[in-house]
Amino acid sequence: MLQYVTTNEGKVREARDYMACEQFDFDYTEIQSDDLGAIAAHGAREAYREADEPILVDDAGLFVDVLDGFPGPYSSYVEDTLGIERVQELVAHEENRRAAFRCVLAYCDGKEFAASPDPVDRDDRALAAAGDEDDESDSGLPVKLFSGTVRGRIVPPRGEGGFGYDPIFEHEGTTMAEMAVDEKNAISHRGRALAKFGEWYHERQAARTE
């Protein structure tokens, strides 16, 4: 059974719209990197070693154009330390308030992948980023990556729903926090990545049963 590594039950419910999966509560090492793919790939390798079952890990962030992509992969830390209102204030007087939510899903099942448009992470850059070039415990495992992006702009907080940066991220006139759950999932960065992964995953499962 596919294991989705997360402590957020809402993510699992969203993922189940695309494929069967179970929640796997595992605290993998979250390396410091500017690359969402490197972070997710490292987590997928580590979680696969722990579970010995197919693993799905996601990493996501808010990328603000005028802030050169900040907070990006550090979005969770910035939310906890500065708060979303402070991020909104940083761009409140800027003409360019464009931003994007981005998500990368990393899948590892210990096997190789056939060629497809979605990239495969083979070189565990996470080890180098962590300063452990001589540690090969998680190297050599290919990880398939799937990305999703939704563009919008930063606005003063509106709405009571969602979580994280949803109240300050407006997409086509509505903040994520103002959207119903189904409406948000249909256009979200994670939903778009899950849709790509779900289609590919079902094809992979079907090929194995032929």
Automatic annotation (TrEMBL):
Keyword Cell wall biogenesis/degradation recorded: no
GO biological process, one term: nucleoside triphosphate catabolic process
Pfam families per UniProt: Ham1p_like
Cross-referenced Gene3D superfamilies: 3.90.950.10
GO cellular component: cytoplasm
MF-aspect GO terms: nucleoside triphosphate diphosphatase activity
Keywords in alphabetical order: Hydrolase
CDD domains in the record: HAM1
Record-stated family: Belongs to the HAM1 NTPase family.
Protein name: Ditpase
Source organism of this protein record: Halococcus morrhuae DSM 1307
